[in-house]
Write a structure and sequence with these properties.
- The protein is of the alpha/beta class.
- It has one domain: 3-Layer(aba) Sandwich (Rossmann fold).
- Helix content is about 35%, strand content about 30%.
- It is built from nine helices and twelve strands.
- Helix 3 runs parallel beside helix 5 and helix 4 runs antiparallel to helix 5.
- The termini are far apart.
- The mean pLDDT is about 95.
- The structure holds adenosine-5'-triphosphate and magnesium ion.
């Protein structure tokens, strides 16, 4: 059983405060938390704090143990992230990138297990035909899928995904999030995903946190958080929110709200 908590998270870049006392809802096995908020609201910064990559104040625990008290190698085995920026378009091939990353991270799998794992992930993400193509000839969406493949290869208990589907077409967005859900059902663990797509958030997240200027404006279930009032405040858009056949919110964006004066 995996349990993850992060409370009172504050962080700055230089003297500029970015995150202000952010409490992430307590998470456990099977939970998918969506991190929503406008550009520059602090989603990626929060992700970097949660992995320990960025210095911050506050408390982060995994299974009740504080991050600072844990063996850092174990922490990095159990908590892994897919950053917002996909792998750069180099002459490296996806297969080489996977193997060199696995070696650099000293992943605890045999070569056979790793080869099977890479094969399986590439198949699921539609990357098999591109495995031996240099990254610089892949499309932006395919490179984003390679970024996801790198994170999945690590098989962490806590998987942080920073806008995992932003470059993907409709089909692959759903394939990716179905795969993420299926993986949780099979092996446990939890996911925190920064998303801009409200429909995907409503469909795949159990809980949502809405950030604005580094503060939490609302946290709860998609129905509780995705309200016209919250969306108007945070995104300055007028919306109509109805429910789909499963009772999940369906957000229709009507127009941007113009500042008067
Ligand atoms: N390395 C950095 N140095 C200085 N300021 C930074 C740095 N990284 C981010 N910031 C600033 O921190 C704020 C939050 O940025 P962050 O990337 O966390 O936002 P975000 O919510 O992920 O936005 P987006 O939706 O555009 O990805 C922004 O004002 C940004 O300019
Ligand atoms: Mg970001």
């Amino acid at each position: 059983m995996t349990r993850f908590s992060a409370t009172g998270i504050s962080a700055s870049y230089g003297r500029t405060p970015i995150l202000h006392d952010v409490d992430v809802p307590d998470l456990q096995d099977d939970d998918v938390l969506g991190l929503l908020g406008p550009n520059a609201s602090g989603k990626s910064t929060l992700m970097r704090c949660l992995t320990g990559e960025k210095s911050h104040n506050g408390s982060i625990t995994l299974d009740g143990c504080h991050r600072g008290d844990m063996d850092q190698a174990v922490w990095h085995q159990r908590v892994a992230t897919m950053p917002q920026t996909p792998p750069s378009p180099s002459a490296l091939m996806p297969t080489e990138l996977m193997w060199s990353t696995a070696r650099a991270l000293d992943l605890d799998f045999s070569d056979r297990e790793l080869a099977d794992r890479i094969e399986d992930i590439f198949t699921r993400l539609g990357l098999k035909d591109f495995a031996l193509s240099p990254l610089h000839i892949l499309s932006g969406g395919k490179r984003q899928l390679v970024g996801l493949a790198l994170a999945l290869m690590r098989d962490p208990d806590v998987l942080l995904l920073d806008e995992p589907t932003s470059a993907l077409d409709l089909h692959w967005r759903m394939v990716v999030l179905d795969l993420v859900r299926e993986r949780l059902a099979k092996r446990g663990g939890l996911v925190i995903a920064a998303l801009h797509d409200l429909d995907l958030a409503a469909r795949y997240c159990d809980k949502i946190v809405l950030l604005e200027a580094g503060k939490i404006v609302a946290a709860g279930t998609p129905v509780e958080v995705l309200t016209p009032e919250n969306l108007a405040q945070v995104y300055q858009v007028e919306t109509k929110v109805s429910r789909d056949d499963h009772g999940r919110p369906l957000v229709q964006v009507i127009r941007p709200i113009r500042e008067m004066g």
